[in-house]
Amino acid sequence: MKRWSQVHRAAFALSVAALAVATGGTVALAAPFHKVNGPESYVTAGQEMTVTATCPSGEVPTGGGGYSTSVLFTVSRSFAIDTTWYWSGRYSPGATESAKVSAFVICTTP
Known about the structure:
By secondary structure, the chain is of the alpha+beta class. It contains 1 helix and 7 strands; from the N terminus they run αβββββββ.
């Protein structure tokens, strides 16, 4: 991970201070976020599948996605409903082996 130089840290601190003055008080920085992986599932040739990942209680999704162990899995949808991220697609009918698929969600406190 690239470290910030002293100049970058000073510029950031000045920016936050200026924002605090402009808004007449304190500045709330973005809440921390973390990644939650859903369970892995196996998909076979020609199969359509939706996998999910869910934020813990009291948290909301800010984004998400998924992964497959094969490039032959074509993603058709990736979206959130309430606290769950859905990742859907279809595995190529010409595939010769099963593949693993899994969804992930990026969560934060509102």
